[in-house]
Write a structure and sequence with these properties.
By secondary structure, this protein is mainly beta. The chain has one helix and eleven strands.
Length: about 230
């Protein structure tokens, strides 16, 4: 199963790059398509005694930009649109009631417990090309919340001691969480060689409004691909 998944990922990446490069060639370099895969490290204060995040919190960006040259140089200013996904995996706790504020996280055995946020992004960046193969990019983006949810799998409904009912594994999903921030602001940078990039981003705005939930302000670190 793992080999099949790996093969599928390789085929999808090859297809993505082929179509991205074709688009850039046909538009004379004015359009760029890219994809970033990263892990989030929360830089927020948190403030919940029983709220801890897993070390790896994977997420992704996908985007398309329109590139305008800076004078006669190969450097460009780019504007575009995209989508981003951030996941926060909670250890030994879960969101007990997602529709009240402030958020209440309950300690318990969970096989999976996560928060998920998806955004529609408007990025702007400066791209500096070096020796035609290296590229350094700096930019920022505004993200508009598309959806939020929490997903829980585990023994999240313990029974009373004198009850004959046994604990069961439950899988529950709640959408449209309360107290979320509808607009977020982020900065990012990429250092690339040909189509491969190192990616780092920082979200200045918490995913939850102040005092409505945990302060989630991710530092995103990962790798990306884009047509060169």
């Amino acid at each position: 199963m793992k080999k099949q998944f790996f093969l599928l990922a390789v085929l999808l990446t090859m297809s993505f790059m082929a179509n991205a490069q074709l688009l850039k060639d046909r538009t004379n370099g004015k359009m760029t398509v890219g994809f970033d895969l990263f892990t989030d490290v929360n830089q927020g204060k948190g403030g919940y005694e029983n709220f801890n995040l897993r070390t790896i919190n994977q997420g992704f960006n996908a985007y398309i930009t329109y590139n305008m040259p800076m004078g006669e140089s190969k450097h460009t200013v780019s504007f575009g649109v995209g989508v981003s996904c951030h996941n926060y995996y909670i250890k030994s706790a879960y969101l007990a009631d997602p529709y009240t504020t402030p958020m209440a996280f309950t300690h318990g055995y969970t096989k999976k417990s996560k928060l998920n946020f998806n955004y529609f992004d408007i990025p702007m960046e400066l791209n500096f090309r070096i020796a035609n193969k290296f590229k350094i990019s700096f930019g920022g983006k505004i993200g508009f919340l598309l959806s939020s949810k929490t997903k829980i799998k585990g023994k999240i409904f313990p029974v009373e001691e004198d009850s004959e009912e046994l604990e069961h594994m439950w899988e529950v999903q709640y959408r449209n969480l309360s107290g979320t921030e509808s607009v977020i602001y982020s900065a990012f940078a990429r250092i690339g060689y040909r189509c491969i990039n190192l990616y780092i981003g920082y979200q200045f705005t918490s995913s939850f409004k102040k005092d409505k939930g945990p302060e989630l302000m991710p530092l995103s670190i990962g790798i990306g691909i884009r047509a060169y």
